[in-house]
């Protein structure tokens, strides 16, 4: 039996290397479809929001989930976010299929989790692929105010941070920000700059960010900056430039060669994947509480814009797209 299982696994791996076979199979596997798990809740239709296995950051999940939550609500369905049944950046291998990583960080949009609907009659599994037909917040949040206001309302209505985390975040905010005017800064690291992901916004260098930060601090009387980054090289540059004016949360920062995605980098601490997500979320949440914002156009920036009631001033670098 073990030999048969091993053969099937090897066969699957080989098939995945053949694009004209793997691509249609993947689309078929992740297609939207109706299922029934029992007879409960016959008066309700649940819409399980899925995403094919991928190594992306928390706010990439937030963005695509927002689009599908909005779609489900408009159709009269009850959305339920599933980050349990496929691998993702925030689950350890042994947790896949057992724990919903979404609920580490956020409440379910309408209070129903996967266990609550396990025996329900009417269930729709969402398409797990991200395609052009999906309407969700994207890089244009930064320059289309109507789009930002629309999605900010969706976030406010359906995306609440988990209670115990929010309590911790509020303590951190008081410790770092009380009686201070703070400029929030988000800079994506050398992984993004060197990997140059196709059709994604070009990111500024640390020195470009520092130059802009000085101007904004002077003009808007911000006496401190709060820096959100996992990249040690960027942290070191900003620390050298701003010294004691630099505020940060305690987090693991990584030295990258620029050839690996920072989402793939881990430390040997217990619960590292969960903690990476938590540290990322608190950083973005704190960015949303700053007076002003200077940032590259990346997922964390979109998250800060969505969670913020509005900044006195924000500057998002517009340097074009990587080819």
Structure description:
The protein is α/β, with parallel strands linked by helices. It folds into two domains: 31-125, no CATH class; 160-316, Rossmann fold, CATH 3.40.50. It has helices spanning 2-16, 19-29, 58-75, 102-105, 145-158, 163-177, 190-195, 206-220, 232-242, 272-288, 299-307; strands at residues 33-35, 46-49, 78-81, 123-125, 182-186, 224-228, 246-247, 292-295, 313-316. The strands form two sheets. A five-stranded parallel beta sheet has the order 7-6-5-8-9, with helices on both faces. A four-stranded mixed beta sheet has the order 1-4-2-3, with helices on one face. Helix 10 (272-288) packs across helix 11. The chain is globular and about 60 Å long. The N and C termini lie far apart (48 Å).
């Amino acid at each position: 039996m073990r030999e048969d299982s091993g053969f099937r696994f090897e066969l699957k791996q080989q098939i995945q290397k053949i694009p004209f076979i793997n691509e249609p199979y993947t689309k078929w596997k992740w297609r939207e479809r109706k299922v029934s798990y029992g007879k409960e809740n016959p008066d309700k239709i649940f819409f399980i929001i899925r995403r094919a296995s991928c190594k992306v950051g928390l706010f990439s999940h937030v963005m695509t989930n927002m689009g599908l939550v909005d779609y489900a609500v408009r159709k009269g369905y009850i959305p339920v976010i599933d980050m349990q049944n496929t691998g993702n950046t925030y689950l350890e291998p042994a947790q896949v299929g057992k724990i919903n990583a979404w609920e580490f960080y956020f409440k379910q949009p309408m209070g129903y989790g996967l266990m609550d609907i396990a025996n329900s009659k009417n269930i729709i599994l969402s398409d797990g692929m991200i395609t052009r037909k999906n309407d969700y917040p994207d890089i244009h949040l930064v320059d289309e105010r109507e789009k930002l206001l629309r999605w900010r309302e969706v976030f406010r209505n359906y995306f609440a941070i988990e209670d115990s985390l929010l309590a911790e975040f509020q303590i951190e905010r008081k410790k770092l920000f009380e009686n201070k005017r703070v400029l929030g800064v988000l800079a994506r690291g050398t992984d993004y700059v060197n990997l140059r992901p196709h059709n994604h916004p070009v990111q500024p260098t640390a020195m470009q960010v520092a130059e802009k930060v000085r101007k904004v601090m002077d003009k808007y009387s911000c006496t401190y900056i709060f820096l959100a980054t996992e990249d040690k090289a960027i942290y070191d540059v900003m620390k050298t430039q701003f010294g004691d004016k630099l505020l940060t949360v305690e987090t693991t920062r990584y030295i990258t060669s620029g050839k690996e995605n920072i989402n793939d980098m881990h430390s040997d601490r217990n619960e590292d994947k969960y903690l990476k997500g938590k540290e990322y979320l608190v950083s973005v949440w704190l960015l949303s509480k700053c007076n002003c914002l200077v940032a590259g156009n990346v997922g964390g920036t979109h998250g800060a814009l969505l969670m913020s009631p509005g900044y006195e001033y924000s500057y998002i670098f517009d340097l074009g797209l990587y080819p």
